[in-house]
Prior knowledge:
Layout lengths: L1 E7 L4 H12 L4 E7 L4 E6 L3 H10 L3 E3 L1
Antiparallel strand pairs: 1-3, 1-4, 2-3
GO molecular function: metal ion binding
Protein name: Heavy metal transporter
InterPro entries: HMA_dom, HMA_dom_sf
Amino acid sequence: MSTTITVTGMTCEHCEGRVEEALAGVAGVTDATADREADSATIEGEADIDTLVAAVEEAGYDASA
């Protein structure tokens, strides 16, 4: 299953990496790709949307479903 969330505040590749790392740490996520130009992250796997948003926010970025 593929899920896309809105992520704002990413300004560089390092930011994308931090978001991807945060999402990869969520149980059920098999892959995560952040795109700062699109202000989004695409997640593969089975994970609760609220948990994904919380993981990104804990990493220091704004996120919404």
